[in-house]
Amino acid sequence: MQSSSAADPVNFSTTTFEVGGREYRPPASPVAVLCIDGCGCEYLDITMAHGRMPNVMAMVANGYRGLVRAALPTFTNVNNAAIATGLPPSETGISGNFFLNPETGEEVMMNSKEFLRADTIFSAAAKAGRKIGIVTAKEKLRDMLSAGLEIGVPGGAIAFSSEKADQAQSVTHGIENVETVVGEKTPKIYSAEASLFALRAGVALLQQQKADFLYLSLTDYMQHKYPPEAEESLAFYEGMDHEIGRLLELGAVVGATADHGMNAKCNADGAVNVLYLETEINKAFGTGHRVICPITDPYVVHHGALGSLVMVHLAPGSDADAISRWILAQDGVTEVFDRNTAANKCELPPERIGDLVVLAGRDYVIGRTPGDHDLSQLGGMLRSHGGRYEEMVPMLLSEPLNHAYYAKAAGDPRNFDIFQFTCNGVQR
Questions:
Q1: In terms of DSSP H, where are the helices of 329-409?
Q2: Residues 162 and 41 grouped into a single domain
Q3: Percent of the chain with pLDDT strictly greater than 90
Q4: Counted domains in the chain
Q5: What CA–CA distance (Å, rounded) separates 352 from 151?
Q6: Are residues 72 and 205 both part of a single domain?
Q7: H/E element holding 421?
Q8: Taking a C-beta distance cutoff of 8 angstroms, is the pair 308, 387 a contact?
Q9: What is the CATH number of the domain that holds 418?
Q10: Domain shared by 291 and 240, yes or no
Q11: Are residues 53 and 154 both part of a single domain?
Q12: Rounded CA gap, 95 and 301, in Å?
């Protein structure tokens, strides 16, 4: 899948680097890793079945496609941090999009690099001589993913979002005039174009030799809004395939995975299957219990802050075992773990989760109280994620695997292994 292009004369650094005890050996080619937000395998299967992803079909035929396990909770910040570091949440420290900060007692967004406890692959690759380009659809990820990077200096990294592309400045983002570079206006975040702009920006950075080691993280607005068989979804994935083809034409080794899948959270009549857990616990056991929904982020139109995993902070003196048994008996609840068990089984930082971690079934979500969730903008259908049933996601590589990584793929590969597979595992 290599091709001659304007990028070919460049001498790409093949210096080996290490992050979190893992070694990375980048190929002498551009590297482009995609996080296709919310991409369960059914989206690829159905779009390819319609013949609308020829470039991805070629990747499957000539490279590799497999299943990998995402990190729990299956939310954006958790998994992007894991992919960016190659490490589970227990080591990144990122346990959700939103959490109860034990140091302050405040409920806060977990968007800032100050919450990240591990070095990123990007900062290590930059020190090894690669030119880093990070493009996220959502602005909320930019600060965290750019941790440790030198930005605003000659030869420094580039990091910006589709959402605020028109606000990028050289000193803070490593680039300015993004709309001119990409050749398009800044898109609306609630659109297919927010993701496609991120991919087109990655293509532009490669074409113009502004970067050679890319991370392109998309948004799941389309997956929240449309099932995989909808024409809107088919057209979106077709557009995505076109940009992947352009990356391949530029000689990039392309790896792609997802941060989580997506499922409808409704009954047969289309009504949302939701348990307002804080309301019900306080009715059954007295007041003072707090439920934190770690899916919470600025993009409420996506999901109404309803996902399939929540943290429960119990009132002092509570009978945790009794409350745990009661929660597990509620409709839609599939798993309840105490703090230590959750930290062990779900690879989570124990001091950044609740006394209890509660997971729901495939078609259920868990919320706080009815007043905490605005469902009016969902268009009559809730599609969401966060739990066990959005854990298995695709991994795609544009090149065939070498022997060592073919064996690794037969074990328990994770979505946060994608840079290892892309750098170390391909036969190029």
A1: 339-345, 403-409
A2: yes
A3: 87
A4: 2
A5: 30
A6: yes
A7: helix 418-424
A8: yes
A9: 3.40.720.10
A10: no
A11: yes
A12: 22
**Residues 225-273: pLDDT tens digits?**
999 999 999 999 999 999 999 999 999 999 999 999 999 999 988 899 9
- Model confidence at 300, pLDDT cuts 50, 70, 90, reads low
What's residue 9's pLDDT? 59
Structural tokens at position 126: 């930059």
Predicted confidence (pLDDT) at residue 96 exceeds the cutoff of 80: yes
Cα(20)–Cα(18) distance, rounded to whole angstroms? 7
List 312's β-bridge partners, or say none. Answer: 291, 356
pTM of the model: 0.95
Q: Where are the alpha helices (DSSP H) in 10-103?
A: 41-49, 54-62, 76-85, 89-92
- Domain with 66 in it: 24-261+391-424
How many angstroms from the chain centroid is the CA of residue 417?
13
Give alpha helix (H) positions in 359-402. Answer: none
Q: Nearest 5 degrees, angle CA 78-CA 79-CA 84? A: 105
For CA atoms 126, 128, 129, 130, give the dihedral sign.
Answer: negative
Distance CA 272, CA 252 (A): 42
Per residue in 109-155, pLDDT (tens digit) is: 898 899 999 999 999 999 999 999 999 999 999 999 999 999 999 99
Structure tokens at 366: 């868990």
In a domain, 11, yes or no: no
Q: Say whether both 42 and 133 belong to one domain.
A: yes
Q: Check whether residue 323 and residue 372 sit in a common domain.
A: yes
Is residue 367 in a domain? yes
State whether 39 and 155 are in the same domain: yes
- Give the pLDDT band (50/70/90) at residue 98: confident
Q: Give the DSSP letter of residue 398.
A: S
The dihedral built from the CA positions of residue 391, 188, 225 and 50, taken in this order, carries a sign that is: negative
Residue 267: inside a domain, yes or no? no
What pLDDT, on a 0 to 100 scale, did the predictor assign at position 6?
A: 42
**Pair 300, 321 in one domain:** yes
